[in-house]
């Protein structure tokens, strides 16, 4: 159930993901988790800030977690940073 | 005094900033704050993760804060996301 309330950040414009987060809150979610890896991490912060400042004023950041994931590719393994922003309202 | 233990993340390679953080810990700091704005935020997470995983094993992330700053430019005001990662050891 919690897993339903996850928005994964890719390379689309920030507003696409803001809309996804706002929709989840409007559909009754009390908690939405924004997940990103690598360079999308900056965009994840933008999504959380735009949501909080412009669309869901009663929402706030409950927790931010960072970690490292190991990615296997044809050039060998590499590490990538990950971030999760848990928002509640 | 706390302000001395701040590392600002710019557009240099990650390892430059990791070295700055590690140096502060080695010089006796018990807390180092990594600050970044905009697209440098992803790099700030890399710096924290590389420091923790490879150089200062006893360090950990104490707090992560995100916020929005208003920037005045010749094209008018705009908003930029900011992040602070507080590391302790």
Name a few traits of the molecule:
homodimer, 89 residues, alpha+beta, Translation Initiation Factor IF3, four-stranded mixed sheet, 2 helices, 42% strand, elongated
Counted beta strands of chain A: 4
How large a portion of the residues of chain A is in β-strands, by DSSP E?
A: 35-45%
User: What is the architecture of chain A at the second tier of CATH?
Assistant: 2-Layer Sandwich
Low-confidence stretches of chain A: none
Work out the count of structural domains of chain A: 1
* Major interchain interface with per-chain residue totals: A-B, 20 and 20 residues
Biggest sheet features of chain A: 4 strands, mixed
- What is the class of chain A in the CATH system? Alpha Beta
Oligomeric status: homodimer
- The structural class of chain A is alpha+beta
Identify the strand order in the major beta sheet of chain A: 1-2-4-3
Describe, in short, the structure shown.
2 copies of one chain form a homodimer. With 89 residues, chain A is α+β, with helices and mostly antiparallel strands. Helix content of chain A is 33%, strand content 42%.
Description of the structure:
The structure is a homodimer of 89-residue chains. With 89 residues, chain A is of the alpha+beta class. Chain A has a single domain (3-88), classed as Translation Initiation Factor IF3 (2-Layer Sandwich). Chain A is built from 2 helices and 4 strands. The first copy, chain A, has a 4-stranded mixed β-sheet with strand order 1-2-4-3, with helices on one face. In chain A, helix 1 links the parallel strand 1 and strand 2. The longest helix of chain A has 16 residues, at 40-55. The first copy, chain A, is elongated and about 45 Å long. In chain A, 36% of the residues are buried. The model of chain A has no long low-confidence stretch (mean pLDDT 94). The interface between A and B is medium-sized, with 20 and 20 residues. Chains A, B: Keywords: Chromosome, Cytoplasm, DNA condensation, DNA-binding. Chains A, B: Pfam families: Alba (PF01918). Chains A, B: It comes from Candidatus Methanoperedens nitratireducens. Chains A, B: GO terms for molecular function: double-stranded DNA binding; RNA binding. Chains A, B: One of its GO terms (cellular component) is cytoplasm.
């Amino acid at each position: 159930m919690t897993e339903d309330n996850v928005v994964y950040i890719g390379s689309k414009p920030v507003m696409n993901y803001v809309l996804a987060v706002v929709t989840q809150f409007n559909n009754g979610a009390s908690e939405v988790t924004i997940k990103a890896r690598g360079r999308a991490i900056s965009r994840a912060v933008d999504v959380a800030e735009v949501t909080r400042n412009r669309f869901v004023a009663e929402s706030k950041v409950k927790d931010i977690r960072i970690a490292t994931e190991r990615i296997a590719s044809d050039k060998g393994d590499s590490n990538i940073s990950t971030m999760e922003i848990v928002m509640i309202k």
